[in-house]
Amino acid sequence: MSRLRKNLAGAAVVAVVLAVNLPAVTGFASRKWHEYQINRDDYKATHGHWTFLDVPEEFKVNAIHAALLRTGKVLIVAGSGNNAANFAKGTFKTLLWDPAKQGGPGEFKMIDTPVDFFCAGHVMLPDGNLLIAGGTQRFEVLKAKVKRAAGAVTVKNEDPDARPRHLHPGTLLTAPGGQVYRTLAHITVPPARKVETGIPGRVRVTPSETKVFVESVADGAAGVLDARPGSVKYAIQGLRGREKRNLYAIGGGMTMEKQDFQGIKDAYEFDPVAERYIKVQDMAEGRWYPTLTALPDGRVMTVSGLDTVGQVTRDNEIYNPRTKTWRPGPKRFFPTYPALFLLQDDTLFFSGMSAGYGPGQLELRPPGIWDYRHDSDHPVKTPGGIGGVAPDEMEAFTPVPGLPEPELNETGASVLLPPAQDQRVMVMGGGPVGERQPGLPNSTARTAIVDLGRPDPRYVRGPDLSHPVRYPSAVLLPDDTVFSFNGSGDYRGRGASDVLRAEVYDPAVNAFREAAAPAVGRNYHAEGLLLPDGRVLSMGSDPLFGDEAGSIPGTFDQRIELYTPTYLHNGEKAPVFTDGRQSVVLGRRAGFKTPDAERIDQVRLMRPSAVTHVTDVEQRSIRLDFTRVNSGIIVTIPENPALVPPGWYMLFGVTKRGTPSPARWVHIQGVR
């Protein structure tokens, strides 16, 4: 073969190889070009930058909950991690990460976890402890896997002179038709309550009531019981005489329908110094998906959640950290994980966003302002209520109108826009209730803003997100912007719908600007929070499926990303605080030493996050008045505890270019 013919043949072979592998070659080149672009200094200065956190295998957990502690460490709570096998084995996990030791010894530490905190609620307490309440008592059973009919009953005790009665799991109940059911949890039934009427010899007795979930002892349809339109009385086996007459159960029908998750009553405080959970009094209700909101006096309003029988409870409770006890709060229905913010007039605002469970009817979940202090549980006529009455749901509640696309009010983000003094709340994205609803899109790019300082507040539409998403994270930054990132276009990332997006909302101009895109798509069980050094932590993602066709079960993504905002890439040296007060009383002034007083243009007090399911009602940024002195600055803390709930905060000094100092932790104490 001549040299020319050999060269032509060789060129043809190369051409064929190139043609076959062109997509891979092009993809490789594209990735390399992208890596080059995002690592350029000018790109970082205009878009920020993402990196991965290197987590050793033994410390990887399913990040369901996260909270920034006053020690600067991040508590990452998995509980069972939405893993039924872990739940059955009692394998519950919590990880503590120390950003100050990143890459060094002691960076990670596993924490003994006493119960399954999966889908609990949490809030910062005035002393810096984290209150965590609720979690998982029982995993859901999908309809296709239900083997026995089941349902909820209420065990009643009409005897005021009886001792508390303990009914163990497996206690048998007999329906009027002879069907037999067994309890699935331990319950304690207190005696009835006896009240003197003022008439000699006459008292009023109110039976005690304790809920419990039961299932048929018989498999399949043999255990189905149709109790419509009311309820039936179940006899508790093994009782005789007076005890049998006074102790019994009342319940509706028993069905083969899906059985929802059930919540636990347990509550703990996490001590960030001792780095351990401390048991406190149980709640009266079991809760799975509750929201905990700090009140001005340091107490905590706890609302909603699936109870011990898998029903959304409307029995709210208030925790007192001084006595470490609970007492009943005003009754009101909220969907699970409602975004409930404390306002500066000591009312609570429900943004309309929630995550998870509850009926989809809009009339049951309107956005509005709840004056919990004046909610007396006034009874009104209610079909199906006890005695035909029930507490008035709209008492002390003022609906806020104007929310665009109100039917897409689940799994969106809500933030109290900075500064908190403006009392404006923004909602971003969201989707329909449940997996999807006929005729509705699976997600929205909508944002909306309400100015709660106005006499008649109403939502107005804001600028759209770059993509329609549900599960968007939203994190307040020290420069008074909001970092919004991730999310998916469909339920739990179905159909490979995760969106690799990030953008920054600037309230001053009411607009978004593009930010560097993350490398990991995140949907259900995603969290983001601000770190004391100004970076943003992003973790958690729990896709339903692992492929676009929906044929492979999804896997929890345990990778953690860190976003470094543009203000840490602008070339300006960050200001620093070198000394200052660690504790300040509301309304007082405090000095902080800094060589950068002349460069500090704004001072912000930022409450650390406690976030789950992209719901974080803890984060807030308060504008502080300050004056410059020779050695630093003197700040004035607002005196309103409803604006600045007592607790530990991060103090940031911010330059005119928006460069924040590393945070200095300050303990804000209420007036004694």
UniProtKB/TrEMBL annotation:
CDD domains the UniProt entry points to: E_set_GO_C
Domain Galactose oxidase-like Early set: 586-668
Domain of life: Bacteria
Pfam families, A to Z: GlxA, GO-like_E_set
InterPro entries on file: Gal_Oxase/kelch_b-propeller, Gal_Oxidase_central_sf, GlxA-like_b-barrel, GO-like_E_set, Ig-like_fold, Ig_E-set
GO biological process: carbohydrate metabolic process
Protein name from the UniProt record: Galactose oxidase
